[in-house]
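Supplementary Note 3. Input sequence used for the single-chain structure prediction.
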Amino acid sequence: MSPLAIVLLVLATVAAMEGVAWASHKYIMHGFGWAWHRDHHEPHGHRLEKNDRFALVGAAMSVSMFMAGSPMIMGADAWDPGTWIGLGILFYGIIYTLVHDGLVHQRWFRWVPRRGYAKRLVQAHKLHHATIGKEGGVSFGFVLARDPAKLKAELKAQRASGIAVVREALAD
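The predicted structure, written as discrete structure tokens, is reproduced below.
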């Protein structure tokens, strides 16, 4: 593969992973994977959460692709793009860890953004956590965030139609 093709494949994988993360969050974490994800939505005093297991799933995806692309493991059957897809998944995992766990939930550092896109990310994810339980909700992505005013309106509509139970602070 040419260096340009490699860079484009890594970047395309990082971008695609936001879609994978959105769908996984909406349909797996807030679906049959709720048993692992629930503690992420509830107050607790633990350093680790059951939800952190999903990071291991992402790591397994990355390692699997690295293995598929490795001639040392796969021999002549190695699939060269696998290495670069694995790298893109790894990069997304690092971005996710810094943005979601670090910035939004402040697990690794303390900084509250006052303006710009970082503030929008934090607001959008706080609105995601405004619902009680796994039903309904908004903003299932981790890096791309919609306008918080539109998300609030969507939550209000979900509450009015009985789809979501919204925490007291956002009930009005």
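The radius of gyration is 18 Å. The chain has two domains: 1-111, 113-172.
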